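User: ok so my PI wants both of these folded by tonight, can you help

Assistant: No problem, let's get them done. Here's the first:
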Amino acid sequence: MTAELRELVRLRTRYVDEHSDRMRQVHRAVDLGFPEFTRHVRMNTVLATAILARYPTARSFGNVSVRKLACLTYDGRHQVGEVLARALIETAKISVGSHHSEAYGLQVKYTCSDMELLRNRVKQLDQEIEGKFQTHEVGKLLTTIDGIGSRTAACLIAELGDPSRFRDAAALASYVGVPRLRQSGKRALSGARGLPLGNARLRHRLWMPTLVAVRKNPWLRVHYDRLLAAGKRPKVAIVACVRKLLPAIYSVARNRRSFVPHVR
């Protein structure tokens, strides 16, 4: 079960990374073909790729009517709408974009198509992961920790197996690569970087859940606020909160019980 979950999570991560790469490609292309587009539409949305797949450059908006663009459906339900359609068409007329060739437009269209394919694959993998996850005892218990959702818990299981296999919480933190908080947070750091020890994938996956947890989890919020009050920088405090989160993960896995916070 754990091995299958690990492969699914890593495959999902690969497709997410590929989607991000395509997103950067489209963003660079739009900067040359219709740079004003991002004033009206955020690039990391289904709406953006749906529009650009049909109208990849500023010049391609020249022959489209407001009504036709307004009726364009994206995500299977919503339409572009008249207000946005009119704004895009009017902006395209005065765009400073300089790349309008057919080959350039095809490049944008094909990249948008790749993004849609990758997005659908990620959705399918999410369903597969959720199905595997529902029957995993430890994984389900980990979601009782505020800030850890099913995706993060699945990643934990995929990378760690059973967290209780470690000698103790300190050994788990060492494996992840989260150091103890030793500096004041006020002293300037040297330019030299530390060695990239630990599991970088897992540290990356724990960063955003910890940002959520310090807002929604009273137990972790108290710790975070205490560190800030002591003069720690926000990023240093978040790293310390990741380290405090790991003993909770270890305890839940070892005791096979839901998490019960103790706020002091």
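One down. Here's the second:
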Amino acid sequence: MTLGEVVKKYRLERGLSQRELAKLAGRSPSFISLLEKGKYVFTSQITLDKLAHALRIKPQILYEAALTGAHKPIKEIRQPTSEELLREVNALMCIQVPIRGSVPAGIPAVKEELFEGYIAISKDELSTTRKDIYALRVCGESLEGDNIHDGDLLIIEPDIAILDSKIYVLRLGDEVVARHVFQKQDKLKLVASNGSYQVIEVTEAEILGRVVLAGRWQKF
């Protein structure tokens, strides 16, 4: 059985509607609907654990269903342990993102690109399916109003059209900065979410990419 079929089976056994299961698992009804229709092959460990708790079943049942849905070949006759299943599920559900250095979220400054390693991010955390995303480490406090702090990582989707108010990483001559961007006729207005930083207006800037996610992940 696929993951969606298993979820539907236990949901019906528990007498739950899709909306009720979604509420218990902290997910949207549309997510549960798409999952049961087979539109999601993989989802994160956190979501699997929440679904298992809501359905009152062992998480291992959903781990096994997720792997079955991925058509993973069975390499061993023995039954894999929960830990082994979890490692395989995490590997299928995550994308490796390179850390390419840091970006000022403060006073613009020159920052050389420097590869620091990788982080693993769950695919269902990301709003993009592009393979060329990368991470930059935040230096400064200008985005603290967005709950983005010094030392956090920004996940960047490169070279993308500007949508007003979204956070972008821009190169201003030899300087690099992360700010909310607004188009203002022939200028770009760069705004910090920390009110102690001044608004910057420029006529020319290279858009390096849009911030699609921010947080802290373990580097490997």
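The helical segments are 3-13, 18-25, 29-36, 45-55, 59-69, 82-93. The longest strand covers residues 94-104. Good luck tonight!
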